[in-house]
Sequence to fold (337 residues):
Amino acid sequence: MIPIIRRPARTGVRPAAFIREFFRAFVSRAAFAFGSALAFGAALLICAALGSCGGNSGGRAGRTVTDPMGFTVTLPPSIERIISSAPSNTEIVVGLGMGEKLAAIDTYSPDVEGVGAAVPVIDFLYPDAEAILALKPDIIIASEHNRVAGDDPFKLLKDMGIAVVYLPTSGGIEGIYRDITFIAELLEVPERGDGLKEAMKADIEAVAAVGRTIPKRKTVFFEISPLPHIVSFGKNTFLDEMIGIIGAENIFADQSGWIAPGGEAVIERNPDVILTNAPGPADLAAEIMTRPGFNRIRAVENGAVYRIDPNSSSRPAPGIVRALREMALAVYPEYYE
Fold:
């Protein structure tokens, strides 16, 4: 069984699958507020017992880098033990062939293909700094959304000598390529990063080449959270970009970012196809088709409501290629089969 490292459980609802990476920080802040004198002193004792807080002192000078959010970070001489606080980062680390260096991962990363079954899991909703220090990481590869209102939830760990880099949430596919480049250079395997990007680009272009030939573009509504709080997206998101790549149009492309449209707005825009990666029962598509008023939507009239793999369609990482293919087959089976 995978060990899960967490603070004592607290009441409350855990975030829905579609916003796991995007809103986990809002509860993380309270969890890391234990960076008090008592916690700081306990951490010092752990560091003393372990000999150091970082996992690797090495024999050469460490590098200084600027992470994608503009923070200057001094790295250890070599990176042998990595903690990843987001599944998109975990997926990139594994994609670079560095999965064996993962010292711990977040609670949504165990199902990333290539992650070892014995890698400890850290609940970053309620993280335990002392337990993290005991793992002797060389670096924590964190997400922008671990931060709240500019506060650094890993400040205590950084004060203990742990290198922490932050990656912003990618708003498009180019952002994913930049994340791959940064992590590959961070881990000193830039050629592997180039290979991973080129493989992604080739797979995406194979879909795009077909998409460009489609004469009549269908309209698509993509639901990432179901009733009672429907959530979707507009432009400046990688999912919107993917809808365009397959040769279709997002019905909310006139809006930006993550949005919360009402059911009436979906009915009014009358999509040809409805896609969903929302959490819920296996028959979620059937639930969508029986919503009040949705029987007037073309997608429902034609039975064109499909579920897309939730992991690959919610993580800005190389795995979006799987979701892209599923979306293409769902919307245009006659072109992509």
About this structure: Residues 4-169 form a domain with the Rossmann fold fold (CATH 3.40.50.1980). Residues 6-46 have pLDDT under 50 and may be disordered. The longest helix spans residues 190-211.
